[in-house]
Write a structure and sequence with these properties.
By secondary structure, the chain is an alpha/beta fold. It folds into 2 domains: about 170 residues, NAD(P)-binding Rossmann-like Domain (Rossmann fold, 3-Layer(aba) Sandwich), CATH 3.40.50.720; about 280 residues, Dihydrodipicolinate Reductase, domain 2 (2-Layer Sandwich). It has 16 helices and 17 strands. The strands form 3 sheets. Strands 16-15-14-13-7-12-11-8-17 form a 9-stranded mixed sheet, with helices on both faces. The protein has a 6-stranded parallel sheet with strand order 3-2-1-4-5-6. Helix 1 links the parallel strand 1 and strand 2. Helix 1 packs across helix 14. The longest helix has 26 residues.
Amino acid sequence: MEDKTKLQPCDMVIFGGTGDLCQRKILPALYYRMKEKQLPEASRIFVLGRTPMDDLAHKQSVRAACERQIPAKDFNESDWQRLRDRLRYVSVEATAAADFVKLKQAIEDNPRAVRVFYLSTPSSLFGGICQQLKSCGLIHESTRVVLEKPLGHDLASFRQINAEVMGCLDESQIYRIDHYLGKEAVQNLLVLRFANHVFERIWSGDVVDHVQITVAESTGLENRHSYYDEAGALRDMVQNHLLQLLCLIAMEPPNQITPQAIRDEKLKVLRALRPITPETVLVHTVRGQYQAGMIEGKAVPAYREEVGRPQSKTESFVALKALVDNWRWSGIPFYMRTGKRMPQRYSEIVIQFRPVPHAIFPNQQHSPAANKLVIRLQPDEYIKFGLITKSRGPGGYRLKPVSLNLSLADEAHERSPDAYERLLMDVVRGNQTLFMSNDELEAAWRWVETIMRSWEESQVPLHFYPAGSQGPAEASVMIARDAHEWHRDD
């Protein structure tokens, strides 16, 4: 196996450092990278928050957060000490110029070669923070800025925020993060397609009947009530996660695995998406919202009760039929769905191939469906290829489905790094391959905003579904219009 790349020492500066994302994901990710000796010992981690806090109290808070998120078998005193010794807490108000002067003094006391600013804050603050960093001289040629999703709430707000950020930084310094792209199984999509000739030869509308992308969540709103009720599933999940998965499935082979080559091919897919208009929105989309129900034997409240807004019309579920108008995929539907309070948490991609053109075996028309490739992304990672074979024994040809099953988890002989671990180290090394470009996000927002306008103009109804179900029945009706059904992993 290829050795992990040795990185330069860095200063990692985290805005929103006392927030949920930093506590749950970013700091545990840095603990593991320290533990596995990938992040150089000389690196420093500046955690920024609005609340004044002494150094000891902050480190106790970080330790508690890491112990909640890191399994006991992986957490030990010596590794914690290595992370602890590199932590610095600085109280910073994002709109206070004097606080940035204080931050500059802390950073430029023996600065490191690479400087990373991670903006884990509302996107409305991105432009102002970048302007403050530029004004006080904290941006130099080795500065990288990470922008958390969502970047805006519509096309206009994205353009405004993006323009403010790009007024302070070069595009090569901006890392627009989508943690889905850091998942091992998602990256494996590129290898599966472009390192295996047998798959790339059949990866087109000539052989593929349709594609399904599902990202299901069993949780509700957790600590994101106010944000989610303004965003909804379309903005929160489709605009980034699901469209990025669609791009990796539908993109043409890049001439090489470089950030620009991959981004260019993904952008072509986004620009080829057929707009969903008021004339097609009722048959190509479904909006849903969960009601009270049962998940894993526990009663859960309805969305409106959970968010505290009895008349909320925000969708917690969305299903879409997307069409990619290009040579490879013309006429081939890509069905996408995502929802909260589903029976279980999982993400998967299903490539359904066409049936054989002529059935030669007796009763073959009543036999199991055609070949199917199932790529499970989480929580367990596997690839299954469905074949049709003969049942053993005499009595003629009786057909049955079987699966060639590759468990990616079984193949791994060591802990698989979390997506944030991989993405943070890519930022330090200056590799933008797994980050979204300005043009990609612009194209994604343009397509999603067309759906939002069409929902409003056509008054698309909100369908209710009980928590613990697979979503509203109308989602099954949508795909059944094309004589298809959602994949179930029986």
